């Protein structure tokens, strides 16, 4: 680690509790003595489950369509959600997928990143889910309305970042999927 780049945290203060995240200020000091105040978003870690299956020899994803309040639009996404306090990312992924789709499967962690380390401190974990099995109906939170759909993998890859696929975290998910698929070409083979 380059010590000349590390700013020391002198103090942190919570400004606002926003239910799913907190807004903080952090006073930090550079190695050369400069000081500054920085805004941070403190959030639980997040997960994304990427459910994959074959249908008539064609690779498909299970995806969700739902209204997103931030963009005031309907988006198409993989099952995703927050990691609850004391919960491991894998357990959160299994829980969210079962709640949102009623489906269980075999989970493989593809990786994790900070969604935006300029001002966020949490991690985002991505899981490929295979060997899918429908176990239950949806068990949604009171403010969720989700349609579960099947979409061919190649359509999702082609359209990611446009129209219904206007979600940066889903772009990250596709990036992790594509990297994993390089070693597992059957995930994209028709």
* Uncertain segments: none
The outline comes out as globular
Q: Rounded to an integer, what's the Rg over CA atoms? A: 19 Å
The helicity comes to 10-25%
Q: Helix and strand string, N-terminal first?
A: EEEEEEEHEEEHH
Q: What is the straight-line distance between the termini?
A: 44 Å
CATH architecture of the largest domain: Alpha-Beta Complex
Q: What is the makeup of the main sheet?
A: 7 strands, mixed
CATH fold description of the largest domain: Nucleoside Triphosphate Pyrophosphohydrolase
Structural class based on helices, strands and sheet pairing: alpha+beta
CATH superfamily of the largest domain: Nucleoside Triphosphate Pyrophosphohydrolase
CATH class of the largest domain: Alpha Beta
Number of domains: 2
The quaternary structure here is: single chain
Strand content: 35-45%
Features:
single chain, 190 residues, alpha+beta, Nucleoside Triphosphate Pyrophosphohydrolase, 2 domains, seven-stranded mixed beta sheet, three-stranded antiparallel beta sheet, 10 strands, 19% helix
Please tell me about this protein's structure:
This protein has 190 residues and is of the alpha+beta class. Helix content is 19%, strand content 44%. It contains 3 helices and 10 strands. The longest helix is centred in the C-terminal third of the chain and has 16 residues, at 168-183. The chain starts with 7 loop residues before the first strand and ends in a 7-residue tail after the last helix. 23% of the residues are buried. The model has no long low-confidence stretch (mean pLDDT 94).
